[in-house]
Amino acid sequence: MNYALIGCGRISPNHLAAAQANNLNIVGLCDIDPYAMNDKALKFKLQNVKQYADYKQMLSEQKPDLVSICTESGKHEEIALYCIEQGIHIIIEKPIALSIEGADRIIRASEEYNVKVCACHQNRFNKSVVKIREALEQNRFGKMFYGTAHIRWHRDREYYDRASWRGTWEQDGGALMNQCIHNIDLLRWMMGNEVTEVFAYTDNLNHPYIEAEDLGLALVKFSNGSYGIIEGTTVIYPKNLEETLYLFGDKGTVKAGGHSVNIIEEWRFSDMLDDPEEVKATYHENPPNVYGFGHTPLFADMIEAIKEDREPKVTAEDGKRAVELVLAIYKSAAEGRPVRFPLEKCSTMDFVGRFD
Question: How far is C-alpha 86 from the geometric centre of its chain's CA atoms?
Fold first, then answer.
């Protein structure tokens, strides 16, 4: 299966490593920065792979079966729609779009052209998360009371200076849309997906050089009667502290922690079907960075989905749900009121000037 990469920035090595681990034939690299392409070509021994500044030219000449879109977030929708219209299956880095309408356009186009779209929420494939999801589907938690997602990370001036699009409403959003959306996705997925309403606060406490938020606090009411708490920030001193997910039911309590929910730290169930210490020892990963090891199994699932003509485990609709929840938090904070679901129209551009 032929594969190409669009966007050779910070996350691209994870995609290239996953492509190689799954024996994809890498046929093209695309970026407007030739240094970024050359760097990845050297690191992954792809010197004979053709490099492009224009993704449309690359797609026309190389005709890949599968493409990763790893550009700045604000370009995801435009590139995704073009790929879909060419009949090319895509893995879109989070967020899949920066508006509800954009996510809907991607979903509609994928259905019209019969193209597979995977939203790159790779933490769903963490060993810890797979184990927790299995317990949830076996109803081991019983009645779910509430869950919490905490993303306590650090981003400094240097991080934002390396790419001018970061922290802008047009191309990125803030901490919740960029850094925290993975855990927000996990919380919504684990708590039944369907949200009734959200109430939130957002602020820019320590990054006056960006347009968007560096802190978000939200209460989420799910339609099944459970609740969620979201705390996401990039103001933690002096480095990333943790990304944790708690789930509380009447028959089970779980905490997944580490830098990116890759360690099970608490495992308590009334059924006592397994040994908590054994579970904690077995479902434990220590990745070198917050991106974890999830890209490789996500790619494997997407390849299988294409071959079997089924939906990938993380769909465009899943990607939309994560974006919808972040945008609802933005809207609630900006308007000072609860926001009801579904959110039919909203974009990061609705919040330009919010922290001026």
Answer: 24
The H or E element spanning position 119 is: strand 117-120
Give all domains of the chain, ordered by start, each with its CATH number: 2-123+295-313 (3.40.50.720), 124-289+320-351 (3.30.360.10)
Rounded to 5 degrees, what are φ and ψ at 51? -110, 145
Residue 4 in contact with residue 62, Cβ under 8 Å? yes
Nearest to 261 by CA among 169, 183, 205: 183
Residue type, 340: R
d(CA 51, CA 56): 12
Could you report the per-residue pLDDT of 72-108, keeping only the tens digit for each? 999 999 999 999 999 999 999 999 999 999 999 999 9
Please tell me the pTM assigned to this model: 0.97
Q: Residues 319-328: pLDDT tens digits?
A: 999 999 999 9
In terms of Cβ atoms closer than 10 Å to its own Cβ (0-12, 13-18, 19+), residue 278 is exposed
Integer Cα distance of 270 and 292 in angstroms:
30
DSSP characters for 175-192?
A: HHHHTSHHHHHHHHHHTT
- Using CA atoms, how far apart are residues 47 and 32, in angstroms rounded to an integer? 17
Which parts of the chain fold into alpha helices (H)?
A: 12-21, 34-43, 55-62, 76-85, 100-113, 127-137, 157-161, 175-178, 181-190, 276-282, 295-308, 316-335
Backbone region of residue 353 per phi and psi (left: phi > 0; alpha: psi in -120 to 50; beta: other values): left
Spatial contact of 219 and 233, defined as CB atoms under 8 Å apart: no
Residue 314 C-beta-side C-alpha neighbours within 13 Å:
32
Give dist(CA 30, CA 32) in Å, integer.
Answer: 7
In angstroms, rounded to a whole number, what is the distance separating the alpha carbons of residues 34 and 15? 18
Dihedral of CA atoms 11, 17, 21, 24 in degrees, nearest 10, equals 80
